[in-house]
Amino acid sequence: MQQRPLGQNGPMTSAIGVGAMSFSDFYGPTDEAASHAILNAALELGVTHIDTSNVYGMGQSETVIGTFLKAHPKAQDQFQIATKAGIARDSDGNRYFGNSAAYLEAELDKSLTRMGLEQVDLFYIHRRDPAIPIEEATENLARLVKSGKTRAIGFSEISPTNLRRAAAVHPVGAVQSEYSLSTRSPELGLVQACADLGTALVAFSPVGRSLLTDDPLPVDAIPKLGFLAGNPRFMQPNLSANLRTTDGFRALAADMGIPAAGLAIAWLLHQGNHVIPIPGTRSVGHFRDLVAGAHLKLSESDLQQIENVLPVGWAHGDRYSQDQWIGPERYC
Prior knowledge:
By secondary structure, the chain is an alpha/beta fold. The chain is about 40% helix and about 15% strand.
């Protein structure tokens, strides 16, 4: 497995990671055994970066990682584990974004307890609180490095300008952003800023929430999945249009003799040596298809063929609904 740095001064990690949102029921029912099977496959295939959050299943994802590490103590030294905090609800159930020093430390402490760890390799602010200057939020994260509870810090879904402001305060190990053949907006500044600063760009939803795979989620399953049921790209008529468009990508992958998901991962890895895709799946078979992309070398001709079937801006519908856009920073 090829290796990439998790930030300028961070450890080397696998070029592809595990997006552990799939260890909760976000994209359909799962259980501990299925999640442990993915982690076992990761060890077998040399995938060492595990990316989770305190809100994935309200602690479920971290708990599952913790039970795996308890059963496989040596895995703790093999994995680089990242988690996040910052999305919260008050006593009335209203969502808010916690970036204060007290909130972040308290949530990281809970995450460490769930996973049975004394330190994580990377701790992100999941969503920015616009009322707290980025410099102050960065200092709040930096305190956790000094305390020894995390090796590096990061942010999820922030703008290139705020990344540069944060990096002026403390090195930023990684920025997590949606990035794939269906979401190309990071190329308008974020890919470049991360490269300039030595920051890893951790790409979530790298196969377009299944659109860039050989087995997209069934149309009749979408209404049962809360997030996707309200996501513009998975609502009709956009969904049917997106499935028709990506049929060409599936055909191209078949002609090349590789899984579509693997081709989508390979394309991302060719966008920069600092890009680390973190696909999530509940299937070991699908996981192997994804990891195959990390071993694929694409020629300029291959990359052009991919661009021909999925040109920039091909997707029908925004990547988020109006409510889903609350929190991520728009910069283009």
